[in-house]
Amino acid sequence: MEDESFAAGNENIHISMTFGVCQGGEMPVDEVIRRADQAMYRGKHLGRNRVEKCNDLR
């Protein structure tokens, strides 16, 4: 995605995406969201444009 650009008027916009994912199982939904959120910010810290799993958190 980072290599793609999108036209917006007279400008080209470049974007990147970082995702945090977590499989919940028996975990409460709010805990799944919290862990996925932590994983997303970890991915941003590690360089952006990536997917981080919550079970990778230490």
Structural key phrases:
elongated; two-stranded parallel sheet; 24% strand; alpha+beta; 58 residues; two-stranded antiparallel ribbon
Describe the structure.
There is one protein chain. By secondary structure, the chain is an alpha+beta fold. It has a domain at 18-56. Helices cover 29% and strands 24% of the residues. The chain has one helix at residues 29-45; strands spanning 5-8, 11-14, 19-21, 51-53. The chain starts with a strand and ends in a 5-residue tail after the last strand. The mean pLDDT is 88.
Q: Give the uncertain stretches in residue-range form.
A: none
Instruction: Let me know the number of strands.
Output: 4
The structure class reads alpha+beta
Describe the strand arrangement of the main beta sheet, using strand numbers. 1-2
Q: What is the percent of helical residues?
A: 25-40%
Q: Main beta sheet, described?
A: 2 strands, antiparallel
Order of helices and strands: EEEHE
Kindly, what is the distance between the CA atoms of the first and last residues, rounded to a whole number of angstroms?
28 Å
